[in-house]
């Protein structure tokens, strides 16, 4: 687990500094609008950094089995008829937002201590 966090921090040094929307877009986990006029298209996730995205997919898949909050989130999306990839993206994004908040809080505690 610590190696995964270290790799994520190395590949996404902006974690804890940017907003949740910005860090999700940077990691390639934010839906991009595909609208034109009255037509509302699908909102695919694309772009961003491939390394952190694939690592977050892997971690989210494992954490969904063992963390009760993410497992409940996963169980809520399945009966709603969401596709497997949509569930994986949602889990990875939720995990990234949690890690971003923890890193932000740790940075502010460190800044206050010095």
Which spans of ≥5 residues are poorly predicted at pLDDT below 50?
A: none
List the helices and strands in order.
Answer: HHEEHHH
User: What's the total number of strands?
Assistant: 2
CA-based gyration radius: 15 Å
**Percent of residues in β-strands:** under 5%
Structural class: mainly alpha
List the helices and strands and how they pair.
Blueprint lengths: L1 H10 L8 H8 L7 E2 L2 E2 L9 H17 L1 H10 L6 H30 L1
Antiparallel strand pairs: 1-2
Helix pairs in contact: 1-3, 3-4, 3-5, 4-5
Description:
The chain is mostly helical. It has one domain (2-113). It is 66% helix and 4% strand. The protein is built from 5 helices and 2 strands. It has helices at 2-11, 20-27, 50-66, 68-77, 84-113; strands at 35-36, 39-40. Strands 1-2 form a two-stranded antiparallel sheet. A hairpin with a 2-residue loop joins β1 and β2. The longest helix is centred in the C-terminal third of the chain and has 30 residues, at 84-113. It is globular. It starts with a helix and ends with a helix. The model has no long low-confidence stretch (mean pLDDT 88).
């Amino acid at each position: 687990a610590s190696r995964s966090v270290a790799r994520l921090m190395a590949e996404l040094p902006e974690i804890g500094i940017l907003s949740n929307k910005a860090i999700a877009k940077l990691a390639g986990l934010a839906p991009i609008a595909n609208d034109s006029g009255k037509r509302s298209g699908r909102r695919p996730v694309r772009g961003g950094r491939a390394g952190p995205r694939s690592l977050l997919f892997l971690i989210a898949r494992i954490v969904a089995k063992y963390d009760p909050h993410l497992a409940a989130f996963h169980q809520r999306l399945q009966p709603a008829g969401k596709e497997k990839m949509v569930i994986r993206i949602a889990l990875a994004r939720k995990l990234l937002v949690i890690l971003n908040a923890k890193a932000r809080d740790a940075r502010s505690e460190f800044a206050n201590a010095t």
